[in-house]
Amino acid sequence: MKKTPLYDEMVRSGGRMVDFAGFVMPVQFAGIISEHLAVRRNAGLFDVSHMGEVLVSGKDAERYIDKLVTNAVGKLSDRQVMYSPMCYDHGGCVDDLLVYRFNPERYLLVVNASNTDKDFSHMLSQIHGFSVKLENLSDQYAQLAVQGPKAIHILSGLTDLDLDNIDFYWFREGLVNGSPSIVSRTGYTGEDGFEIYCRPEAAPAIWSALLIKGSTHGIQPCGLGARDTLRFENRLVLYGHELDEHTSPLAARLNWAIGWDSDFNGKQALAQEKETGSKKKLVGLEMKETGVPRQGYSVYAGEQESGVVTSGCKAPFLDKFLALAYVKPEHSSNGTELLVDIRGKKLAATVVKTPFYKKPPISRLTDSAEGSRSSEA
Fold first, then answer.
1. For range 73-94, the mean pLDDT
2. pLDDT digit string (tens) for 294-315?
């Protein structure tokens, strides 16, 4: 198993370490619920150095990525970030990723840790006919995420960047704790916050500085457990749960991440699915009876099996038993009454609107009441 550049800091901070995607990562520190609530109310700090980074450069970089992913890369401006699925020709997902545009000839693609090698091989297989260079730079980056309504106040004193001028899904290059870094207003928690890409050797000092600066703002180190429950409440899909090679972006209701004017891989298959309809639809479920609807549990409409749970838990902030599930289209309307088979008992659930938790507006350093949002929780 690999260790991230922050491994020693994770252990020093009391992380309970587990194997995740070939890395030794913390699943929790103080506890999943405590960490989850810290991010919703104040701030949390995550090690996400296991994520993969691929640099695409060359005169055809924009045209190549526009073919590679489903979203419309041509709409990006310099220093803007875009989310997109990446599909096979049959419409299933290779992965979902973030596209960072530095300029028309230089992009950084950030992919899921467990898919880095697979994704890079797929990208190389699509390079024919394009004047581009691909570099897997995953070992040359460490990545930290500071998330929550207090994130901007914690990071502001440690960087020369004007954080108020970084809007959601935009990034800048500057110094963080004196080290050259990429700072993007992105995250995987359903909260405001920032992700910091830096040299591996600089990461431990940045981690420590953020914890020290954040100590008066209620920051907590957070593990994979809270990262999962946070993304789940905000209906942020996870590869291997809501997405895989047999599932299309349309079934996952990611229509907004498809640029139909682009000639991307899988377009023909997705256009046909759009015309005929998906065989399954991703929905949110709220349990009406007490029970945890975990991944893999079957979903029924009466006696008819309709689908399967992809993610589920007792949502820490909302204090409800919730799930994401794929069901037959005829059972996907809000208000539909369904059943979830939990250890042999079929318990009542209702299809509800998602996201379960709505992301608040981004914070500004110029906000007059810095702590107002945390007091609402």
1. 98
2. 999 999 999 999 999 999 999 9
DSSP category for residue 46: E
Report how far residue 184's alpha carbon sits from residue 120's, in angstroms, rounded to the nearest whole number.
23
Q: How high is the pLDDT of residue 119?
A: 98
Take residue 231 and report the two structure tokens written for it: 């993304």
Q: Which of 173, 204, 233 is the last residue of a domain?
A: 233
Domain count, the chain: 2
Structure tokens at 191: 């909260």
The answer to whether residue 279 scores a pLDDT higher than 50 is: yes
- Strands of the sheet containing 16-20, edge to edge, are 2-3, 23-28, 16-20
* 314, part of any domain: no
Q: To the nearest 5 percent, what fractions of the chain are helix, strand and coil?
A: 25, 35, 40
Q: Could you tell me the pLDDT band of residue 374, with boundaries at 50, 70 and 90?
A: very low
Query: Which CATH number belongs to the domain containing residue 77 in this structure?
Result: 3.30.70.1400
Q: How far apart are CA 171 and CA 155, in angstroms?
A: 14
Check if the beta carbon of residue 89 is closer than 8 Å to that of residue 34.
no
d(C-alpha 193, C-alpha 151), whole Å: 5
How far apart CA 333 and CA 283 sit, in angstroms, is 8
Give the Cβ contact number of residue 8 at 10 Å. 12
- Helix ranges (DSSP H) in the chain: 7-12, 32-41, 61-68, 116-125, 151-156, 203-214, 224-233, 267-276, 372-376
pLDDT surpasses 50 at 368: no
157 shares a domain with 98: no
Of 140, 125, 116, 132, nearest in space to 73 by CA: 132
Last residue of one domain, picked from the residues 175, 202, 233? 233
Residues 258, 267: Cα–Cα separation, whole Å: 9
Print the domain residue range for 158.
2-49+140-233
In this structure, what CATH number is given to the domain that contains residue 161? Answer: 3.30.1360.120
Rounded to 10°, the helix 32-41/224-233 angle is: 50
